[in-house]
Amino acid sequence: MDVDSDSDISLFGDEDPRAKGKGKGKASERPRKGKAKRKAKEQAYTWEASYTRSWDTVQEDETGSLQGSVEDLMARGRRRRLLAPASAIRRTIIRHLVLILDLSNSMMDRDFRPTRFDLALRYAREFVAEWFDQNPLGQIGVVGMRSGLGERVGEMSGNPQDVLRSLSDRAKLEPAGEPSLQNAIEMARGNMSHLPTQSSREILIIYGSLTTCDPGNIHETLEVCVKSRIRISIIALAAEMKICRELSDKTGGKFGVAMNEGHFKDLLFELVPPPVQQATIRNAGSGSGNPPADLMMMGFPTRLPDTSTPSLCACHSDMKSEGFLCPRCMAKVCDVPTDCDICGLMIVSSPHLARSYHHLFPVKPYEAVASLDDTSQSASACHACARPFPAAPSSGVVTEGISPLGRYRCPDCHHDFCTECDVFVHDVVHCCPGCGK
Amino acid sequence: MEAEADKPSHLAVIVDLSPTQWYLSAQASNPYPLSIESFLSQILAFLNAHIATKNENTLAVFGAFPGKSVMLYASTETLVDEPPPLDANSYPPFKMVDTTVTQRIFRELDTIDPGDEPPCALVGALTKALCYINRITLPSISTSVAEGSTNVPDPRILILSVSPDLSSSYIPIMNAIFSAQKLKVTIDVCKIYGPDTVFLQQAAHLTNGSYIFLERRDALLQYLIMSFLPPPSVRKVLAVPRQDKIDFRAACFCHKNIVDIGFVCSVCLSIFCQPVPVCSTCRTKFPIKALQRLKSACPSPAPATPRPLANLNNAVPRTTEATNHGTPGLR
Fold first, then answer.
1. Most buried of A6, A78, A433, B83, CB within 10 angstroms?
2. Which of B253, B251, B273 minimizes the C-alpha distance to B262?
3. B203 contacts chain A (CB < 8 A)
């Protein structure tokens, strides 16, 4: 296929009656495999390859209803994520992200409802909440691009409430003027320059305009970003710009153009899970380029109740009764995670750390049960939620890990689970109810 | 507030049924011995009270047996073969709950191998309760008619614990807690026998539930009814005892010790109780310099023998004392 991938017309299916004349010469010159022929027969033009013909995959059942197909598609969609490769990849867990919002005039366009600006702001808030849920040790700063300047909207903070507060005031963020990519990226870079090496530095730009007015050469900024390993991801709301594509490609980030509201959200939320660590992509295989790792000493504090005797806290010298006790020097601090002001020990509450453990020890994917013949006795209901299994198979075909019986079996404890519990266990609980692991 | 309080509530009770712990609990040498028989009769009265509070209230009971967890009762399921015979002296729904729960407990206890006793499958029971809550709160085509209405019950979980912390189940328990947070499920814990458990304290704290250590075990039913019967929306206006102090310690990955100062891998956040050259989880090698620095900074050489969990109680007062005369913030 690669030989004439640049040509517009790839017709060499000489068996196709519609393709007479045009494809004859080519087909005789280059004998091709049957697979390529079949593919060529279905698509007249190469650009069609990127379109999935969703109507071809849907099949009516004997009564002419689509219900079965629709349910099948839904179940498949839910399970698709579970079938992702389970190979070991290294992800960054301590993340630092600067969210750059376009606050230029072009954000007032109404192609996204109600406006690009309102939608971006709403999704940004949802993004921040979800991001902190999955990256509890991370920090987010917010920068706005307005009137040709980079504007610091929110300081780098590990507290979701602080970040959300900076995004909550719509009147303060009212769009005006032209955006400047360079100014904003430089400001974001300045925010992150002091960070330790083992944490990731990322910039996420939500960009609505098609122009940027920069004071200098933006390619120099790009070079510096590549050098300091800042990953830039861009979501464009209007169209693709060469410089945006280049920024994200060269720094290892993602680039996407939102087609509609739903797609915008999908693009944004794809950036929530921790990214694969950059160094492993760059020099894949070579052991020398291992990213710097370190052992950190951390303390797990005891939380004091609201009713304890008031005392002064080490961080603000405020008189208060609640707080956390540093396990090493017994100083009282107001909030965790933080560094102890007295002894410098990093204090985190263990639930913060534990939130990311499901990335480390994922639940083994359940196997779809194809038939009940090989098992001597099978449970009549889901092992987790006691929902009864359907008695008869819904459709005869077993495809892509969908069980016709609606049963999914844990490879360790051999208990059967229903579709909902399968998805729930792998997506939310991260712990198998049968084996407790 | 009233609309909120009017919502029906779903209660999932997880009963820890470890034979050894219940045997120890019934010993006459305890200040207030509590046998499993009297425990069961009190808990059944509590379950009946929950059903009686509101007609739409639903109930699920899960048992954590050694090495296995079982659904003992659920409002939507029939788990016994034949319904109990009607009795003029008892209210049928109560009778249904009582007979189902007791029958199933005795059936499970009969199958327990008297030899080796594996630890109680509390995690399994907790995840099952969450899966069941997920099932009844998700409007789905395949669920039974009972949830046809839009009136989704307000879910919560009550754990009646007698076993000590099982540090190998730290990660699964934390995962279950986070999913409970996501589902907005309150987890209440009543510690009936044995030392305080750090993990369940954190569970109650993180989900806004209450953790109660039973001091007068002869008054179990009173504790249950006064503090765990009202749903969380009502509890805001009641003075339900909350736990006063939460221990945020974690179990290390290497020896399953519970530590207050740990060494954490920067790549995967695995916790170790002493500096290690290679992370056992992600196989990252740590620089020698950092190791030497940490070894010298280590306050005391890490204990070679795992610190037993029972010492946890002794460790707590130490921190309290330090607070009382601790104003180290003056600078």
1. A433
2. B273
3. no
Q: State the Cα–Cα distance between residues A393 and A397, nearest whole angstrom.
A: 9
- Chains A, B: CB contacts within 8 A come to 233
- The full 3-state SS of B74-116, as one line of letters, equals ECCCCCCCCCCCCCCCCCHHHHHHHHHHHHHHHHHHHHCCCCC
Domain identity same for B214 and B262: no
Which tokens belong to A319? 């008189």
Comparing CB atoms, the residue among A328, A353, A429 nearest residue B130 is: A429
Question: At a CB cut-off of 8 Å and minimum separation 6, what does A161 contact?
Answer: none
Answer whether A230's CB lies under 8 Å from A192's CB: yes
Residue B242 CA: distances (Å) to CA of A231, B61, B180, B235: 45, 24, 19, 11
The pLDDT confidence band at residue A218, using thresholds 50, 70 and 90, is: very high
Q: Tell whether the torsion through CA atoms of A121, A122, A125 and A131 is positive or negative.
A: negative
pLDDT in tens, B256-276: 788 888 888 877 778 888 888
pLDDT in tens, B133-187: 988 887 644 444 444 445 677 899 999 999 888 878 888 898 899 889 888 899 9
B187 contacts on A by Cβ (under 8 Å): none
Confirm or reject contact between A137 and chain B (CB < 8 A). Answer: yes
**Token pair recorded at residue A418:** 């229903």
pLDDT one-digit tens code per residue, B273-313: 888 888 887 777 888 877 888 877 765 544 433 433 333 33
| B265 interface with A at CB cutoff 8 Å | yes
Give me the residues of A, 284-313, that contact B with CB < 8 A: 290-305, 307-309, 311-313
Q: Distance between CA B258 and CA A79 in Å, rounded?
A: 37
Domain ranges of chain A: 89-269, 298-358, 363-437
Query: Which CATH number goes with the domain that contains B170?
Result: 3.40.50.410
Edge to edge, what strands does the sheet with B271-272 contain? A338-339, A346-347, A295-299, B261-265, B271-272
Q: Which residue of A has its CA nearest to B260?
A: A300
Structural element, H or E, at residue A196: none
**B174 contacts in A (CB within 8 Å)?**
351, 354-355, 357
Residue A428 burial (CB count, 10 A) = 19
Burial category of B169 from C-beta neighbours within 10 Å (exposed 0-12, middle 13-18, buried 19 and up):
buried
CATH number of A363-437: 3.30.40.10
Inter-chain touch A332–B121, beta carbons under 8 Å: no
First to last CA, chain B: 46
User: E strands along A171-294, which residues?
Assistant: 200-207, 230-236, 255-257
Summarised one tens digit per residue, pLDDT across range A239-297 is 999 999 999 999 989 999 998 888 898 899 888 887 776 544 443 333 334 456 678 78
Of B202, B187, A375, A220, the residue nearest A389 (C-alpha): A375
Chain B closest-CA separation from residue A413 CA (Å): 11
B87 and A CB contact within 8 Å: no
The pTM of this model reads 0.71
Single-letter amino acid, residue A370: A
CB A121 within 8 Å of CB A165: no
Quote the number of domains for chain B.
2
Cis peptide before A291 (omega within 30 of 0): no
B chain contacts of residue A437, beta-carbon cutoff 8 Å: 172
Q: Count of residues for chain B?
A: 331
Are B257 and B223 contained in the same domain?
A: no
B61/B132 same-domain check: yes
Residue B285: give the domain boundaries: 250-314
